[in-house]
Amino acid sequence: MNHKRSLLLILITAILAGCGVDPDKPTEYTPVLMTRADFEASIEMISPQTIRQPGDIYLEGNLLLVGDKYHGIHLIDNSDPGDPKDIGYLRAPGNTEFEIDQQKVYLDMGPDLVILGWDGSDFEEISRIRNLFPELPPPDRGLIPHEFSPEGRPSNTVIVAWEK
Fold first, then answer.
1. Predicted local confidence at residue 8, as pLDDT
2. Is the pLDDT at 61 greater than 70, yes or no?
3. Which of these, 160, 61, 148, lies nearest to 107 by C-alpha position?
4. Which long-range contacts (CB under 8 A, 24 or more apart) does 75-82 make?
5. pLDDT tens digit string along 26-55?
6. String of b and e for 48-79 (b: at least 16 CB within 10 Å)?
7. What are the helix (H) ranges across the chain?
């Protein structure tokens, strides 16, 4: 009897997990496209920006790094936790997640894996593995219209974000 209840609970959970996502419904979002050349040249340190969609957060010494989904990483001096100071922004279109390890930052940028070196004041691209990841899916997981599929959109473009 307990085995049947467990099986029923697993079945109900599996059915409910699929609710709310209709893979045949077109997405309500529009992709933001960049040419491959512009995309690969887009990483840069710029002045502090407003956080739009906060993501990953890391503390490396006194430096707080806050991800901003699809856009980049905010750098904040946290030497005085009561008064943190925005010190810069790493622009990285298509970035949704990042990791830090021994003065290196590993980040996804759309379909690419990018490894950056960090010298304490600036970043330098060390390596890039193109098309390691699938393209960024729309947030609602809806069907991507043909005109935005790799075959339907302008050649040599990359999806770096989705807008409603």
1. 47
2. yes
3. 160
4. 75/48
5. 999 999 999 999 999 999 999 999 999 999
6. eeebeeebbeeeeeebbbbbbbbbbbbbbebe
7. 2-17, 36-40
For residues 1-34, one letter each, b for 16 or more C-beta atoms within 10 angstroms of the residue's C-beta and e for the rest, the string is: eeeeeeeeeeeeeeeeeeeeeeeeeebebebeeb
Q: What is the pTM of this model?
A: 0.82
120 Rama sector, left if φ>0, alpha if ψ -120 to 50, beta otherwise: left
Given a cut of 70, is residue 5 above it in pLDDT?
no
Which amino acid, residue 21? V
Is residue 158 within 8 A of residue 131, CB to CB? The reply is no
Matching residue, tokens 């009561």 = 82
Q: 């077109």: which residue's tokens?
A: 26
Percent of the chain scoring above 70 in pLDDT: 86
- Are the C-beta atoms of residues 133 and 112 closer than 8 Å to each other? yes
